[in-house]
Amino acid sequence: MGLDLWHHAAFGYEGTVCRSYLNGKKVREATWAVRPHSDTSPIRIGKGAEPGTAFRGLIRELRLWKVARTDEQIEASADAKLRGDEPGLVGYWDFSEGEGDVLHDRSSVRNHGAIKGAKWVTLDETPPTPRPAVQPEPGEWVSLFDGKTLDGWKGPKELHVEDGQLVMEIGKGARGGFAWTGEFPKIDYELELDLVKTEGTNVCGLILPVGESPAALGIADHDIGLGSVNKKMPFPRGKWFRLRVRVTQPKVQVWVDDALVIDLPTEGEQFGIWSGFQGLRPFGIHTRTTRIALRSIRLRSLAPGAAEAPKPGEWQSLFDGKSLEGWTPLREGEFQQGKVGVQDGLLVVEGGRPVAGIAASRDMPKIDYELAFEAKRDGPTDVFCQIVFPIGGSACCLVVGGYRGVRVGLEFFDGRSPDRRGSPADKVMKFEDGRWYSVRLRVTQADLAYWVDDEKLFETPLAGHTFTMHRRWNPLKPLGLLTGASKLSLRNIRLRRVEPGAAEAPKAGEWQNLFDGKTLDGRRLARDHRGRHRHARHPGQDLLRARPMVQGAGQVPRRAVRVLPEPVR
Question: Degrees (nearest 5) of the Cα angle 342, 350, 330?
């Protein structure tokens, strides 16, 4: 049991089985060989019969029942105020007098007690206001802190609200914490909060459920840890950090400032917490000799299986058309003049002086993926759109309608910008205001390609080339979009993973070349009726003798297909 925290403790006995509970949850069950017997000894509250057994702490309620209550009954009434006439209740002292030397029994038995050696105290802490039960839809965020009150939270007197932040300050050598009193899921949920540590030894952490087991996410000066995983990273004092924790059946994931730092499978992992943190379950924050502050605390449940990664080839939407969920508008540096929002189901980025941008705050594959979206420009023909995306361990920037609004290409491909003549990535394309354009980008272990309106503008193997971008776009990593003074509207933003080594599937109506002009790849020699190979040759890169003796070895649709060979006599 943690210090400076209120706890609800219960003990029950039935037959030969005794059970103990903490904060409504059963923590132990054992069998007694000796049956208890009744006697006329007085009931002592806060002190045993022997000298030196006085309790050092505060007590504000005691209940005595003549029946063994069930686990469900104990959990349901742990934080409830009793009337005094409940069936089986034979003692109920609620310590509400506040003065005098008589402790009144509020049950029907009226077994009042005499106060000896104890004194009344006025608590600085008010009991937590119960939170109304809410049942949000899966994926819907629910705020756990209103920025004004301690509603829904319980903790010692050091817990308070300051400047819209939930603040806890623990002195040197002390340990404490505070807990959420509302509903909290055990599995398939996501939690987000901002955290800053300003003084002391800089040690704190979160208590979270992982199924039926509690888990402790610890944060120190130079590392963060959960279960068997410990990640080295600095947490300097005075800096705000954004924490995101995702707990699902297969794994627990933790992000710090949108960087995935812990990806821990639950199978075979033994989660647990120190016994002193039991009072912080199911969700709480603990700290030791430090001052911490939190803000923007929110929770959402996830539909079972929703956290699973989409299968290769399956498109995943990155924009819901309603909110900026999964995206972070950039507000600092040269991005601070830009405006980002959702208008009429569109993701709108505009008004950059010089640029405006938005970055994805989600997992992003580094290789073997395809990104697609539709974009429209309104306003000055400055920069239409630029996309920052990962290529393995580095990042690159695709410019669409940049450099006076007419060029498309990779920024610093092999060290050359797309506005430099002679760059193979340089394409000239005129873009019209108010018209929607589709953009598709494909990055695999073998090559990179991009399309505008289904026209492949560029394709290159990764081997033998360098891909870099200007460091001013680093805030957009791993995935982001930006524009200049224009108004950029986006819709249908999608991502799909590509099976390593998988060939690109052509779209309906899109021509696919069946001969590369160099080899017989994709073809096999036909055999005559005796099983012998018939002759076939390719005397030049442009010629293939047009006799019926070569068969395609690839997949060919059986209906709705046109084949237009170009024979040469």
Answer: 80
Q: Can you tell me whether residue 475 is helix, strand or coil?
A: helix
Kindly give, in sequence order, each residue whose CB lies less than 8 Å from that of residue 176, ignoring residues fewer than 6 positions away: 2, 3, 4, 5, 155, 156, 158, 168, 170, 286, 287, 288
CA angle, residues 427, 433, 435, in degrees to nearest 5 = 85
What is the pTM assigned to this prediction? 0.42
Alpha helices, DSSP H, located in 397-529:
none
The residue with tokens 């022997």 is 50
| Residue 4 in domain | no
Cα angle 408-410-412, degrees, rounded to a multiple of 5: 130
State how beta strands 259-265 and 189-210 pair.
Answer: unpaired
Residue 49, domain CATH: 2.60.120.200
Q: Is 476 helix (H, G, I), strand (E, B) or coil?
A: helix
* Three-state DSSP class for residue 471: helix
Instruction: Provide the domain limits for residue 481.
Output: 316-497
Q: Both 483 and 523 in a single domain?
A: no
Co-location of 152 and 232 in the same domain:
yes
Assess if residue 91 is contained within a domain.
Answer: yes
Cβ atoms of 146 and 130 within 8 Å: the answer is no
In a domain, 420, yes or no: yes
505, part of any domain: no
Q: What is the DSSP letter of 130?
A: P
For residue 405, what pLDDT is reported?
Answer: 65
Do 306 and 50 contact (CB within 8 A), yes or no? no
What CATH number is associated with residue 335? Answer: 2.60.120.560
Asked if residue 183 and residue 103 are part of one domain, the reply reads no
Residue where the block lists tokens 């009429």: 344
Distance CA 495, CA 314 (A): 8
Distance CA 517, CA 505 (A): 21
Largest CA distance in the chain: 118
Regarding whether 457 and 342 lie in a shared domain, the answer is: yes
- What is the C-alpha to C-alpha distance for residues 295 and 196, in angstroms, rounded to an integer? 9
- Is 425 found in the same domain as 402? yes
**Which of 328, 460, 470 minimizes the C-alpha distance to 396?**
470
User: Could you tell me if 150 and 107 lie in one domain?
Assistant: no
Count of domains observed in the chain: 4
**Block mean pLDDT (10 aa), the chain, length 569:** 69 85 82 71 74 72 89 79 85 80 86 82 53 57 90 87 88 76 91 84 82 90 87 85 91 84 87 82 84 91 65 83 87 81 92 83 83 89 86 89 78 72 72 92 93 91 89 89 89 88 60 66 48 45 43 49 50
Q: How far apart are the first and last CA of the chain?
A: 92
Return phi, psi of residue 47, to 5°: -160, 140
**CA dist 505 to 369, 456, 556, Å?**
13, 13, 12
Same domain, residue pair 19 and 82: yes
Judge if 197 and 260 occupy the same domain. yes
